[in-house]
Amino acid sequence: MNEYVEVEGKYRVICDDINKISYFLKEKDFREEYRVVEKDIYYNHPCRDFSRTDEALRIRIRKYIGQGIRKTVLTYKGSRKVLGEGVKAREEIEVELNNWRKMNNILLCLGFQRVISFVKERIIYRKRDVEVTLDHVYGLGRFIEVETRNRSIIENIYSSLSECLEPVNKTYLELCLETQKCRDDFDDS
Amino acid sequence: MNEYVEVEGKYRVICDDINKISYFLKEKDFREEYRVVEKDIYYNHPCRDFSRTDEALRIRIRKYIGQGIRKTVLTYKGSRKVLGEGVKAREEIEVELNNWRKMNNILLCLGFQRVISFVKERIIYRKRDVEVTLDHVYGLGRFIEVETRNRSIIENIYSSLSECLEPVNKTYLELCLETQKCRDDFDDS
Does any CB of chain A come closer than 8 Å to the CB of residue B96? Predict the structure, then answer.
């Protein structure tokens, strides 16, 4: 089986000057693709505990900055499976919706519970098949995610910016639940 | 409280000549609004029995005949509540989706079970606030539904067509489950 497997590196930005990262990316010919503000609402299942089964159900409301476009997506994530050293995969199914409030209400009627919601600003940079995302999670801090098929690219970025980055293994959901610091300031209109 | 309450009459068409109904409607100045083919897929909840709680969860895929438009909707229906003599209401929340297969897969991953699916052709007629729907439910037969705020209109239509109509209290879901005759012939492409 020669499936396409994405590798992902995720880091907390620990230096004060976050411009270091954007300068570095521009120097390496990364191009800013777009900016978004995303609100994520996570739900728990009416009769099983997603924190035990390692599943997730999320409504994401995304606004594209400067474009006035808005997109709402319902996402199911299955439990993480280790495919190989450092490579994890999880089933992910996404469906686009025309109204997040109605989907939220359907989920509540079905017995799903809202667990947490938080907002982040994202800047997405790309260079060929490498995607770098700079996240500002409100209340939690700044993070960088690197996605590519080539693990050495992730390692190079990390070693070039090592004084600025600290590896993170947890999802934002897990970090927000742990710290209870995440904020949900979002203009729903 | 002076809420807008729709009254609905539902009848099985028992005469062989279904043109009687369309002639009658045209004579009474009803206008054909549009024709659709709908596939409905019903689900049961992972940990409660919707047939006991009188709830419903449905994906409906609707094709507008002759227009090439397609619409997919997820609908939750709460249990029926009797508001007054002959007037029932149930909460109904609808959200539009861009992909029914993905929503179906999310529901299956969440433990929902597919109960039944069936297809019907609908012709929707209207005259002011009165909506008359002529349904051909594949495998089950032909039905007519009248929706309006004015109960006497429903009674008039029924008495004018009484040799052709037989009142029905059950939903198509209930009739399909009971008879197991409904068919699901639908071009999903």
Answer: yes
Q: Is residue A28 classed as helix, strand or coil in its secondary structure?
A: coil
Cβ atoms A57, A76 nearer than 8 A: yes
Q: What share of chain B is helix, strand, coil (3-state, %, to 5)?
A: 20, 45, 35
Number of Cα atoms under 13 Å in the Cβ half of residue A31: 4
Nearest residue in chain B measured CA to CA from A45: B110
- CA B189, CA B186: separation in Å to the nearest integer? 9
Q: Do A105 and B111 touch (CB under 8 A)?
A: no
Question: Which residues does B12 contact at the CB level (< 8 Å), separation at least 6?
Answer: B141, B142, B143, B165, B166, B167, B168
**Residue B42: active-site member:** yes
B93 token code pair: 């929340």
Nearest 5°: the CA angle B99, A145, B105 is 20
Instruction: Give A59-95 pLDDT, tens digit per residue.
Output: 999 999 888 789 999 999 999 887 666 566 789 999 9
- State the smallest CA–CA distance between residue B141 and chain A in angstroms: 31
Handedness of CA A37, A65, A22, A9 (dihedral sign): positive
Q: For the segment A14-49, what is each residue's pLDDT rounded down to a tens digit? A: 998 888 999 999 999 999 999 999 999 999 999 999
Residues found in chain A: 189
Residue ranges and CATH numbers for the domains of chain A are 7-171+174-178 (2.40.320.10)
Q: Which residue of A has its CA nearest to B98?
A: A96
Mutation for A interface: B57, B93, B104, most A CBs within 10 A:
B93
Q: From CA B171, how far away is CA B120, in angstroms rounded? A: 13
Q: Which of B57, B95, B102 sits opposite A98 (nearest CB)?
A: B95
